[in-house]
Amino acid sequence: MNTSVVSPGHAGLILLLTGQMLPLIDTSITNVALDSITRSLHTTTTQLALIVALYGVAFAVCLAMGSKLGDNFGRRKLFMWGVALFGIASLLCGLADSITTLLAARTLQGMSAALIMPQILATLHVTLKGPAHARAISLYGGIGGVAFIIGQMGGGWLVSADIAGLGWRNAFFINVPISVLVLALSPRYMPETRSETPTRIDWQGTLALALILCCLLFPLALGPELHWPWPCQAALLAIFPLALWMRAGALRQERRGQQPLLPPRLLQLPSVRFGILIALLFFTVWSGFMFCMALTLQSGVGMAPWQSGNSFVVLGVTYFASAWYAPKLIARHSTRTILLAGIGIQMSGLVALLATIWLTRGQLDALNLAPSTALIGYGQALIVNSFFRVGMRDISSQDAGAGSAILSTLQQATLGLGPALLGGLFMHLLSRTQNNYSEALAGILIAEAIIMLILAVATIGAGKQLASRCPAN
Q1: First CA to last CA across the chain, in angstroms?
Q2: CB 152 within 8 A of CB 30
Q3: Please, what is the Cα angle at 40 between 34 and 41, to 5 degrees?
Q4: How far apart are CA 178 and CA 109, in angstroms?
Q5: pTM of the model
Q6: Among candidate residues 290, 282, 343, the one with its CA nearest the CA of residue 316
Q7: Which pLDDT belongs to residue 401?
Q8: Higher pLDDT, 196 or 207
Q9: Could you give the CA distance from residue 278 to residue 458 in angstroms, rounded to a whole number?
Q10: Do residues 134 and 330 touch, judged by C-beta distance below 8 A?
Q11: d(CA 46, CA 224)
């Protein structure tokens, strides 16, 4: 890194976290606007799936490239370019008068989001040390979760308010003034950092990663709707040779002393491997849970979008409180203890939510959801905090960009997988229960509890790998 830079300070930290919220909110805000988009643009179910999938695919595909560009040309510069493009793409989304225009703008949104996110975590990692670093990383994880909830809540309110008769378009227009504000303040409050040794772009790795994620996310998004035609099945099978091709190219570059997009030496670190496991198990079911809850509250219970969004307020509050308090827990307990506590608290919330569904006969509202969602939110924050701290703990400052790219790509890709995987299971359960949304949601909660139990067993089995405390810096 450039060792002459200074800490971003409180104002710079707030600025970075505000920039972080822009792309993260948009991963969820669209869910509550889909019904309004359908009425406005007369979209098909497949087109609705693409609105969600294209953003996630473009985001995940370009994250590693965005990290590399930030390392080479300056993280503040790439951050500002990303924010500017994100504001433009959001404006285009709001102005879209056809599904084709909206899909193109959503793709640009995902690409610009990928320029923003890697710069934030890498900047925090190389400019902060000690307690300041621990608090910043905790806030990074906490803000990410709160942003996901705000997307549901804020998006629901904006769609229901129908300001100026714009309906769902306001959910995208709101990003424009925030982008302008972040751009205006970035030169003053965000320090410029970059890698000491610029590296070449790994075009083979970038292409392979793009193809792998497209072959994964598109079939999962479109396969259930299209009844799994052979192209979807073939795309999933193509992931394996593509992964081998990507790994072979990365190993060849390392032997030549070059820097591949995703260095195999980082993937060999036990902490990074365990971070991958957390991402696959936790973020997938987290986003799937939010998606199925939104469907149940709106289509099953009959809530308006703003009522559905408000049902997640308690979850968001306890999530942020848990993330804020996490550094004190980290100082006193091992990573394994914190992760197991988070899993246990979240599973208690899932059981409480199952009981709520049974006791209320599916008549859910913000009040009776509060106790169970409070537990779920508190536990989720501990898991997310463990994910980032475990994933980054053995990564040097020189590899901060590549490390943040791996973690952010994993997070975004699995957040995109969740609605496709659990959404497909949810629709199957609906057909089996004659469109009984409460029973279908109960099935999703049981599946999530089983997956969390698997993560708990893996955490216990990790032994010494997670038994020690994370380093303060």
Answers
A1: 16
A2: no
A3: 85
A4: 15
A5: 0.81
A6: 290
A7: 62
A8: 207
A9: 9
A10: yes
A11: 10
Answer whether 329's CB lies under 8 Å from 340's CB: no
The angle subtended at Cα 163 by Cα 182 and Cα 178, nearest 5°, is: 0
Average the pLDDT over each of 166-175, 186-195, 338-347 and give the range with the smallest value: 186-195
Give one DSSP letter per residue of 288-324, joined into a string. HHHHHHHHIIIIIS---HHHHHHTTHHHHHHHHHHHH
Whether the CB-CB separation of 316 and 307 falls below 8 Å is answered with no
Length of the chain: 473
Secondary structure letter of residue 361 according to DSSP: T
Q: Cβ neighbours of residue 396 under 8 Å, at least 6 residues apart?
A: none
Side chain identity at residue 312, one-letter code: F
Residue 195 reports pLDDT greater than 80: no
Nearest to 128 by CA among 397, 387, 401: 397
Q: Cα torsion for 75, 63, 116, 419, to the nearest 10°?
A: -160
Q: Which of 272, 278, 285 is nearest to 420 (CA)?
A: 285
* 164 token code pair: 């100026």
Smallest CA-to-CA distance from 292 within 232, 353, 216 is with 353
pLDDT in tens, 232-258: 999 999 999 999 999 999 999 888 877
